[in-house]
Amino acid sequence: MESFEPQLSWYLALSAILFTIGAAGVIIKRNAIAMFMCIELMLNAVNLTFIAFSSFFQDVTGQLFVFIVMTVAAAEAAVGLGIIIAIFRNRESLDVDEASMLKL
Amino acid sequence: MSGLLFILFAGLAIGSAIAMVAQRNPLYSAISLIGVFIALASIYVTLAAPFIAAVQVIVYAGAIMVLVIFVIMLLNVEQEERRPRRLRFLVPAAIGMAAILIAETAFILYSVHAAGAKLPGPTSDVGLTHSIGVNLFTAYLLPFEITSVLLLMAIVGAMSLARQTNLLSSTARVVPGAQVLAMDIVKRRGKEDLTAIETETTDEAAHLMGVDFQSDPEKRE
Fold first, then answer.
1. B188 Cβ neighbours under 8 A, 6+ residues apart
2. Is residue B219 in some structural domain?
3. Are the beta carbons of B13 and B36 closer than 8 angstroms?
4. What is the pLDDT of residue B91?
5. Given B10, B68, B131, which is nearest A33 (Cβ)?
């Protein structure tokens, strides 16, 4: 059972999988709120990497970074949902394909 | 034992993440995302980071997801409908680039695996609240303070974005007597609609524009 202890690479692999699912979701989804949630998933995947390295290398810095990333995610949620509500108020739709005024 | 726990929670996290992307209803996506957050919090506990696990549940699964679900319910978002696929010719290119990316990632993971870092025992105090607090208020005080400024900016930005602007534009005025207004002034969402609306009294005009106005002074509150 010695080799069945979780290795650092397991956590990194899980983080890579979650990040990839989140990135694919941002590309696939057309709903602004669903894209927003996929971005949250990507942030969480990065947090998992930070925590794994912090625990394996006995350094608290990674966990402090996670704390700050969570604060940034909360700020992003507030501003992002405000933008989504403003878009919905103007267009009656959350489809990002329709909000294309900045496209060349 | 901890290997079994890792496999359990990692499977839960990946399954919930795939369910989140596959769902067409945003509300179900949000609930699946909460599942991912809870599974990740459990993994943090097995990594001896109890403080971050608690913050993960409180801030992410609690505050942020409640806000997201609140907005979903408020806007009453409809399900995404299926659409014809575009750019079909890019699929082989996407598969090729994904294969290259997976090969690179596998190489990096193999190198990390070969280094063979070991999870330290339960004697470590790295993840405990005390050590995080001490470091947050000594060595990392400046980032902590900058974060507070960021939160203030987020509050102001969210308020200014979500504020309900006046129904009439600032140049439009309601004058007593006959009113002729283009429909796009009266109704913001009917941008292209230029039908003229005629009203006889100020009350009628105010009612049409949705402005709370009472011309009779005795009926005013």
1. B167
2. no
3. yes
4. 84
5. B68
Same domain, B147 and B203: no
The answer on pLDDT for B172 being more than 60 is no
Q: Is the pLDDT at B149 greater than 70, yes or no? A: yes
Residue B30 lies in a domain: yes
**Distance between start and end Cα atoms, chain A:** 59
Q: What does pLDDT average to over chain B?
A: 80
Q: A37 in contact with B at a CB cutoff of 8 Å?
A: yes
Put simply, the answer to whether B6 touches A6 (Cβ < 8 Å) is yes
- Compute the distance between CA of residue B108 and CA of residue B94 in angstroms, rounded to an integer: 21
What gap in Å lies between CA B65 and CA B51, rounded to an integer?
Answer: 19
**Is B81 inside a domain boundary?**
no
Residues spanned by the domain of A76: 31-96
**ipTM summary value:** 0.92
Q: Is residue A66 part of a domain?
A: yes
Which of A6, A21, A78 minimises the CB distance to B18? Answer: A21
Which residue, A37, A49, A30, is CA-closest to A73? A37
Cβ A36–B68 below 8 Å, yes or no? yes
A34: distance to nearest CA of chain B, Å? 6
pLDDT of residue B123: 65
Q: Do B147 and A71 make contact, defined as CB atoms within 8 angstroms?
A: yes
State which residues form the domain around B147: 128-163
The reply to whether B11 and B66 lie within a common domain is yes
Split at pLDDT 50, 70, 90, the class of B108 is confident
Structure letter (DSSP) for residue B56:
I
CATH number at B29 reads 1.20.120.1200
Strands B196-199 and B179-182: antiparallel
Domain count, chain B: 3
Reported pTM: 0.78
pLDDT per position as a tens digit, B184-204: 555 555 555 555 666 666 677
CATH number where A66 lies: 1.10.287.3510
Structural domain includes residue B193: yes
pLDDT band at A1 (very low <50, low <70, confident <90, very high): very low
Please tell me the total count of domains within chain A.
Answer: 1
